[in-house]
Amino acid sequence: MTFVLTPPAVAAVPVAGREPGAMFPVHRIYCVGRNYVEHAKEMGFTGREPPFFFMKPADAVLPVAEGSVGTMHYPSLTKDLHHEVELVVAIGRGGRDIKAADALDHVWGYAVGLDMTRRDLQGEAKKQGRPWCIGKGFDESAPIGPIRAAADCRLGAETEIALEVNGAVRQKSTLGKLIWSVPEIIEHLSAAWELQPGDLIFSGTPEGVAAVVAGDTLAARVEGVGALQVRLVGR
Ligand code: MN
């Protein structure tokens, strides 16, 4: 077999706490919508609805190594770029129809990520009943910190997830406030798609989403998992 073009590089994210250069190859990026009550409310929704999903292309990841500051370019077409800090679940073992009780056996590790959103374009898509791709799936729309092996993470209901912009707290919550837990997300997701090693799942954002502009520095963290710093620059 011969490729008629040079095959694209595999999207990959650094792994924390392993030998230098260890990378996690990315297969797909799934995202959960409205998975914290207070965020659902700020987006105009109430009540527990079944989880719903959207995707970003694998090469939308913007990996940022531990201790360094990544650079994200302010995307085209928007005047309302929003941050959404999220716990990211990295799948190590695939499967379909995975039960919640078995779901954590499929998790390789966790990271902190940003589901960056062109909110004005997403809003327009919602209004028109169109896909969210242009609002959610653009280049560099998924900044992500190093992935830490699950055995090295301590996650619980009180685990803090937070985002600061230029040193001011914008989002702060705990993982106990997730509407659908990580095992429940995996159960629902694997009923719809066969999960594969290398899949990433952005598990949803707490309240406090807001706009950022070129020049802003975003600092995200999930306690016991890791941190992520990104500076937004003009195009
Ligand atoms: Mn999100």
Spell out the helices and strands N to C. EEEHEEEEEEEHHEEEEHEEE
Distinct ligands? manganese (II) ion
| CATH fold assignment | Fumarylacetoacetate hydrolase, domain 2
Q: Mind summarizing the main beta sheet?
A: 8 strands, mixed
The second-level CATH architecture is: Alpha-Beta Complex
For the CA atoms, what is the radius of gyration?
Answer: 17 Å
For the secondary structure, the number of strands is: 17
Q: What fraction of residues sit in β-strands?
A: 25-35%
What structural category characterises the helix and strand content? mainly beta
Helix fraction by DSSP (H/I, runs of at least 4): 10-25%
CATH-defined superfamily: Fumarylacetoacetase-like, C-terminal domain
Give the helix tally: 4
Number of domains: 1
Averaged pLDDT, please? 96
Alpha carbon gap, first and last residue: 39 Å
As laid out across the biggest beta sheet, the strand order is 2-1-12-9-8-15-3-4
Overview of this protein structure:
- The structure is a single chain.
- With 235 residues, this protein is mostly beta strands.
- The protein has one domain (16-233): Fumarylacetoacetate hydrolase, domain 2.
- The protein has four helices and 17 strands.
- Strands 2-1-12-9-8-15-3-4 form an eight-stranded mixed sheet, with helices on one face.
- Strand 16 (217-222) and strand 17 form a beta hairpin.
- The longest helix is centred in the C-terminal third of the chain and has 11 residues, at 182-192.
- The structure holds manganese (II) ion.
- Manganese (II) ion binds next to loops.
